[in-house]
Each structure stands twice: as structure tokens, then as C-alpha cells.
Design goal:
The structure is a homodimer of 217-residue chains. Chain A has 217 residues and is mainly alpha-helical. The first copy, chain A, folds into two domains: 63 residues, Arc Repressor Mutant, subunit A, CATH 1.10.10.10; 137 residues, GntR ligand-binding domain-like (Four Helix Bundle (Hemerythrin (Met), subunit A)), CATH 1.20.120.530. Chain A contains ten helices and three strands; from the N terminus they run H-E-H-H-E-E-H-H-H-H-H-H-H. In chain A, strands 1-3-2 form a three-stranded antiparallel β-sheet. In chain A, strand 2 and strand 3 form a beta hairpin. In chain A, helix 1 packs across helix 3, helix 4 runs parallel beside helix 9 and helix 9 runs antiparallel to helix 10. Chains A and B meet through helix 3, helix 4 and helix 7 of A and helix 3, helix 4 and helix 7 of B. The structure holds a DNA duplex (30 and 30 nucleotides).
DNA sequence: TACGCCTAAATTGTATACAATATACAATGT
DNA sequence: ACATTGTATATTGTATACAATTTAGGCGTA
């Protein structure tokens, strides 16, 4: 039986803060006044400060000593750099997975892929995106490397609120689906090098599109 | 004029804690009693707890709610997984650097490399190690990707106190030097794919050796 | 003896109080 | 009017106090 999930206040606060940032209630560059947020969230400063520290490590918040915290201002360039690192990690994951994936795991992945393809043809944007994200996550998970999974997750948090923009254009949408098809084929063939190369290209390309469609400063 | 470095107490505490762990004053699995450490370090619990949170994010400490913190027990397997992720990141760095390194930067890197080779032939272990580490760091830095640099640094912290074991054997020492030679040649030739491949192999191999020489549980 | 239940001590989590630092703005002199 | 300094206010950093939870051990009972 799996152990009960023990919650700490600062975890909830961190989650809420993350949500506030990702959904835009707090926008880039906004200063975070501890006491004000405390009142709003109805917690004391201690757990809030712990949450701020957490988000700082995730890169969503910047914190200068004695000058308080601000929501990180993300530039187009940083976005590309972020996706570049993610591409390196997902490449590693894809290689590992392609080399060792079990039949049953592949089937499960394939079913996700097929479902995504369906939504793609149907033009159902939100469902397509959700599955896309799930697939990338699944592949990293299948690597079986907890450190890889955790590192990846942390970086993805920063990229997340931009995912919609990423595939905004119809062209890229088409292209991305094609790339996913290629990756699945490489998995099926057990071609690790190919799977890795394709995945890297795919993520990197996504990063480039995000960079291009980024709101000009 | 560059701004004065503003220190926070919890940063110093974090540094000291890290040192305590890396030099073995606190060993794997040791419980960390907050009040005891506070007395020892002469700070209150607040900054210590912040430091603990920092090291938790770095993976040096594990923290279960209401049950306190423990120094992470690192298994051989986790070490290999750690190096695997690092290999992915350094591969990315090597590729980027090989494709775009400037003459002056290459010269500086080469001089580090040559100095390392010297210490290698002279059998000066400590100096060799220090330079080895510096070179890997330098290559990642030259990528010019802050996110890559930071992610890499964070993972390296966990691998650091095991670096000595890693190249313990004379055989591996020889091998590693050879691999470094190959990487430098790839840089010189501007062959990104080769540099990346070699770097990945090099780091992965290091991880395997670390895993093998790991004290049995 | 082994097991469960209860209580006390230890320890961690959260809130608050106090100290240090930064920011904003007025007063002063040039 | 402008720059500079001094002072008040706001805000963050650290210490401490209090609450909640876990851990350890004693006691009785089967």
C-alpha cells in the first residue's frame, strides 16, 4: 500500500503561486510583497517564503537579497535556451527508451500517440496539446531514471505556460505531428540513435518556434 | 565598478552544510537535528531551514514532512543515473561549443588541457583532478547557455564528492586522458557531432566506473 | 514475552516579534 | 532648480515563541 501523501503548507502555497504565475495573475516582472500575498493566501510569512524559495529554484521567481522577489521576466532567447536543454534531456530519454522499451509499454505509448493523432485530424487543439505533453512526459518517465525525470520536470515548469503559443501556427502543428510519427517509428524499430536524433530536433524546433512567436520586448 | 557581493546568512549556512556533507563530517543517512546544528553553527533555525531546503533541491538532503532531514543515501545505481544525465548535458554543451568556439577561447581551453596532460604524465593526481573538473566546467560555460550551466552545476554538486573514487584506478586514468585528447581534436576540427558523441561516451564511462567502484551497500 | 495503548519528550511546522536593510521623500545647501 | 544628505516608512532577514506531530519508552494485559 502506498504511503499517505503528507502535505505541507508551503507545498500548497508553492502550487498556488505557480498557478498564479502560469495563468498570468502575476505577470513577468511583478514584485511580490510578502505581507500582501500572505494576507491574500491567509498564511504567515514563513511558509510563503519557503514557497518562494522553491519557485526560485524552479526559475519562475528571481530573488535579490533584501530587495524581495519578482516574477522572472523570460526573454525569447532564454526560452530557446530552455528548450535546448530540454532537447538534450529528451534526446537522452528517447535513446534509452528506444533501446529497451517493452512490448507492453510501447503499446501503451502508441495508444496515446494514436489518440493524439485523432485529435490532430479532428482539429481539437486542447486535447491534442494535453496528449502531446503527456507523451513527452511518458517517454521521459519510461527512461526509468529518476534524476532525469526530476530535472526534466523542473525545466518543463518554466516552459509550460508558453506551450500554447508554441504550436500556434497551423504549419507547425502539422510539422510536429509528422515529427512525432517519425519518433514512434524509431521506437518501434528499436533504433536508439535515430529516436534520439529525431527527438532532439523535434524539441529544438519547438523551441525555435516559441522563440519566434515570442512577444517582442 | 561591480556591485558588492551581498551575502545572506542562509547561503553561508548552505555552503557550510555542503562542505560538511562532501567532506564526510555528515555521512549518508545521518539525521539532521535542526536545533543541534543550529547550536553548532551558531544561527537560528530559520536560516538553517532555508539552507536545508536549498540542499534538498540539490539532492544532497532528503526531507520528509515532520520527520526531519537526512543526508541522501546515494546508491551505485543512482550515481550511474546521475552521470547519465550529466552526459546528456555535456554532450549538448560539447556540440554547441565545437560548432561555434572562437580561436581565443579554444586556445584558453587548450592551455588548460595541456596543463592537465602535464600533471597526468607527472602523476600529480590532485592537480590533474582539479584541472579535469575545470575543463568540464569550462566547456559547459562556453556553451553560453545559462540554463544549461546552472542545471549542470546543480547535478555536479551531487557527483563531486565521488570524483576521486571515479578515477581511482590507473587504467581509467589513462583511458580518460585519451578521451580528453579525442574531444580536444574534435573541437579543433569543429566537428560538433563527434565532439558530442565523444563527450557523452566519456562522461557515461566515468559514471560506469564510479558505479563499479562504489562501496557495496 | 509479546503486543497494544498511553503518556512524555523530542522534534518539526507555523506564526509572530524584532533587527537590518532598502526605498521614498522631504529638508538643506549650493 | 538641482543635487545631496538625512529621516521616516516599507520591506525583507533573522530569531524566538507557540502549536502540531512524531518518536520512545513504560505499563498493563493476554
Amino acid at each position: 500500500m502506498r504511503p499517505v501523501r503528507r502535505q505541507q503548507l508551503h507545498e500548497n502555497v508553492a502550487r498556488q503561486l505557480r498557478a498564479l504565475i502560469l495563468e498570468g495573475a502575476l505577470s513577468d516582472g511583478d514584485r511580490i510583497i510578502e505581507t500582501a500575498l500572505c494576507a491574500q493566501l491567509n498564511v504567515s510569512r514563513t511558509p510563503l517564503r519557503e514557497a518562494i524559495k522553491t519557485l526560485t529554484h524552479e526559475g519562475l521567481i528571481e530573488h535579490r537579497p533584501n530587495r524581495g522577489a519578482r516574477v522572472t521576466k523570460t526573454t525569447a532567447k532564454e526560452m530557446r535556451q530552455l528548450f535546448e536543454v530540454i532537447s538534450g534531456l529528451e534526446m537522452l530519454a528517447a535513446e534509452t527508451v528506444a533501446a529497451s522499451i517493452k512490448q507492453s509499454e510501447f503499446k501503451r505509448l502508441k495508444s496515446l500517440h494514436d489518440k493524439m493523432a485523432m485529435h490532430h485530424t479532428a482539429g481539437e487543439r486542447d486535447e491534442y496539446f494535453a496528449l502531446n505533453h503527456q507523451i513527452h512526459l511518458k517517454i521521459v518517465e519510461l527512461s526509468g531514471n529518476p534524476i532525469l525525470i526530476e530535472t526534466h520536470a523542473s525545466l518543463m515548469t518554466r516552459a509550460r505556460h508558453l506551450r500554447y503559443q508554441a504550436l500556434a501556427g497551423q504549419d507547425r502543428w502539422m510539422e510536429a505531428m509528422e515529427e512525432h510519427n517519425g519518433i514512434m517509428k524509431a521506437f518501434e524499430a528499436g533504433d536508439a540513435a535515430l529516436a534520439g536524433r529525431l527527438m532532439k530536433q523535434h524539441v529544438r524546433r519547438t523551441g525555435e518556434v516559441v522563440e519566434a512567436t515570442f512577444p517582442a520586448p
